[in-house]
Write a structure and sequence with these properties.
The protein has 191 residues and is an alpha+beta fold. The chain is built from 4 helices and 9 strands. A hairpin with a 5-residue loop joins strand 8 and strand 9. It starts with 23 loop residues before the first helix and ends in a 24-residue tail after the last helix.
């Protein structure tokens, strides 16, 4: 749904954001704005791709559609010239944002991230930082990786979702009557 346009992440030139209006069936089925969930024999899953991870609205909508687990397949990394100064802060921010989605929505979050280096002519390329993880509805890391290719496996007990949502009823206590301003790009007279 969300497409980045950052140095060496020129995805707006190659991809088009999801189009909710193009499929009337999705709207009727409450698949809001192109966000979708799939019922599997294990859990109901929602897949939000890469740049979507930074938008709490995407996590909330997908959770409200019934997702038990949010998957965020990602290719995020460093510009090598920024790694020394900002590298650890960027990894921490990436993890914190997604762990917050787990907590705020009472869901599991699985965040596989690419590893390795990609050359880009005329630049130092990109170094994908890995650190894939799986978090539970409390935001606790239940599986995590480093910077090498690996496979993560974790048990995601759906009973923890219900228990967490009962004790932290964030979805129940939403004030949807007060959220209309979120539909505006900017709020305030000085914009």
């Amino acid at each position: 749904m969300h497409i980045p346009d950052d140095p060496l992440f020129y995805e707006k030139y190659y991809f088009t954001p999801g189009d909710a209006a193009a499929d009337e069936t999705l709207r009727v089925a409450a698949q809001a704005n192109g966000f979708r969930v799939w019922k599997t024999r294990y859990a109901t899953i929602g897949v939000l791709i890469c740049w979507d991870q930074w938008f709490p609205e995407a996590a909330r909508i997908t959770s409200l559609l019934g997702a038990d687990i949010l998957f965020y397949p990602t290719a995020i990394g460093w510009h090598p010239s920024e790694k020394a100064e900002f590298g650890q802060a960027q990894v921490d921010a990436w993890r914190t944002a997604q762990r917050a989605h787990a907590i705020a929505n009472g869901v599991f979050v699985a965040s596989p991230n690419r590893v390795g280096h990609e050359d880009e002519p005329g630049t130092k390329g990109l170094e994908f930082f890995g650190h894939s993880f799986i978090a539970d509805p409390f935001g606790r890391l239940i599986a995590e990786a480093g910077t090498e290719p690996t496979t993560l496996i974790a048990t995601c007990d759906p009973r923890l979702i219900e228990e967490t949502r009962r004790n932290w009823p964030f979805l129940r206590d939403r004030r949807i009557d007060a959220y209309a301003p979120i539909l505006s790009r900017y709020i305030g007279a000085d914009r």
